[in-house]
Structures are given as C-alpha cells and as structure tokens.
Amino acid sequence: MDATQKILLLCGSLRAGSSNSALLRTTRALTPPGFVADDYDGMAKLPHFNPDDDQDPLPVSVVDLRARIASAAAILICTPEYAGALPGSFKNLLDWTVGGIEIGDKPTAWINVSPSTTKAADAHDSLRKVLRYTGAMIVEEACMHIPVHRSTINDQGVVTDDQIRAGVLKSLAALTAAVS
C-alpha cells in the first residue's frame, strides 16, 4: 500500500466551531498508518452550480475539488442537517461532483454527529441519494451515527471522549479496508 493514500475529509458545515468540524479534526488525528487525511476547505469558494458551467474551462475552485477527489483513495463526510435537509452549500459541493467521474466507485462514508432526537436522518438520507447519483461506493460499515456533544470537544476543537474516538476508529477501519 502506498504510504500517501489519502482520505478526503468533507465537512458539510461552514462553521469553524461546528461539531462536524471537530469530528473531522479528530479523524485527522486518528487516521491509520498508510493513510493521510486531506481536509477540503474550499466549499465557500465554489460558485453556485449551473449545468451550463459544468464544462471546460471549469472554475478553478471546481477543478481543485475534483482533483482532490480524484487523488483520494476514500472520502469521509461529516455534515449537519439544516432545515430538514443537507445544508445548501454542501449540496452545491455535491452538485459539482455529479458531472465529474472522479467520485465514481470511490469508497465513501459519513459520520453523523447529530445529538438531536431526529439524528439528522433527513440530511443523511439525502446524502445517500446524491452519492448514488455520483457513483460513489458507499461503505455501509463505515457510515455511522456517533453523537457529539459540545462538552466532548476541547479548546483545540478536537473530540476527547474515548467512546466517540473509538467509533471514529471503527469507521476509519471499515473505510480503509474498502480501499483496494
């Protein structure tokens, strides 16, 4: 296995202090040997998706997104639910992946950190539907609901709870095992 295999981390929240961001920072620290985490931070720079613009020359931010997806061995997503669905900015990111081929057959999973009683189920149902359109290979064993409460996040924005961290490790193990 190439020591530089990447797991692309996609956060569906633009809030720096979100529990989704904290979970992905924690994931970066727990990435297993043989893999490196690649945090994608360009979501706010993506233009509004327009099918007319999904042709060469693509906007630079879209080229970057697709290149990062292409170079990744796997993708791990952590997104909140907003108004009963995926946040608009994250749906926009996903829309830009539909016309590309980079995500096709790529091992992909998500961790749902919602502590709400609804468990952000609508957002993750939508995420599953959109990922199917992109051709992503959803790794079911790596898709998890691991509630993260603010009290488990330290001043550096990393989750310190051992049970949550164990869940992240389990998700990473399943995701990396799916990388052929």
Automatic annotation (TrEMBL):
Official protein name in the record: NADPH-dependent FMN reductase
Q: What GO molecular functions are on record for this protein? A: FMN binding; oxidoreductase activity
Which GO terms of the cellular component aspect does the record hold? cytosol
What InterPro entries does this protein's entry cite? Flavoprotein-like_sf, FMN_Rdtase-like_dom, NAD(P)H-dep_reductase
Pfam families reported in the protein's UniProt record: FMN_red
Q: Which residues form the NADPH-dependent FMN reductase-like domain?
A: 6-144
Specify the species.
Frankia casuarinae (strain DSM 45818 / CECT 9043 / HFP020203 / CcI3)
Q: What parts of the sequence cross the membrane?
A: none
